[in-house]
Amino acid sequence: xxxxxxxxxxxxxxxxxxxxxxxxxxxxxxxxxxxxxxxxxxxxxxxxxxxxxxxxxxxxxxxxxxxxxxxxxxxxxxxxxxxxxxxxxxxxxxxxxxxxxxxxxxxxxxxxxxxxxxxxxxxxxxxxxxxxxxxxxxxxxxxxxxxxxxxxxxxxxxxxxxxxxxxxxxxxxxxxxxxxxxxxxxxxxxxxxxxxxxxxxxxxxxxxxxxxxxxxxxxxxxxxxxxxxxxxxxxxxxxxxxxxxxxxxxxxxxxxxxxxxxxxxxxxxxxxxxxxxxxxx
Length: 281
Hints:
The protein is mainly beta. It is about 0% helix and about 45% strand. It contains no helices and 27 strands. It has strands spanning about 15-20, 45-50, 55, 75, 85-90, 95-105, 110-115, 120-130, 135-140, 150-155, 155-160, 160-165, 170-175, 180, 185, 190, 200, 205, 210-215, 220-225, 230, 235-240, 245, 250-255, 260, 265, 275-280. The strands form 2 sheets. It has an 18-stranded mixed beta sheet that branches. Strands 3-5-7-9-12-15-18-21-24 form a 9-stranded parallel beta sheet, with no helix packed on it. It is globular and about 55 Å long. About 45% of the residues are buried.
């Protein structure tokens, strides 16, 4: 029902739309096929993690070549077991770049903790992408007791877990297209701001209370079959000017799990959803 201000339910700037079977919304039409990013994949491992007890990424003896991976190498963390590889970046180590990374063995849980330090914001970059398999886990966190930032750059295919943690504070950023068939856990405010990056969700996006996954820089999000977006309390996926959200056969749940603010909304599937529109959308 329209209130006197012209918005549904009398809200000042916001319309809350409950989408069930069919919805038609005026928007700038864009091809759904364009929302499918190229899958991240790694070539045969050139340098593999060997220490089933875990340890530092920067310890040469933890690697099959006896050297810390370089930016030209295809790297694997796939030794069986449950352990954590700590990538705490400092002024001595600098930022980390590899050609590609594959995480995940056939059992256990292999975790890569990308951590900043008191002397450096962490940046982990791949060109060929990250393939995080079902037994793999990636955590964006602080490696030391300071509130510094962590940025993950490059295409990601996530079938395991990818988690942004508040730890001691600082920004968390994901750049590059992301295909999620596992769990994307947003436990602190996280920016998704790679230029025209494409997030395709066919798994779970879980956003903690009062936290946001904020999409900008012409980013697009598609919630497809098998996908769920859950905002706990006021937690939400927030899309700004110039962005696009497509609700396919996925679902959303929460108070306002998706907020489209001056962006485009396209409804193509049969997933039940709650989406809030703000501004001119």
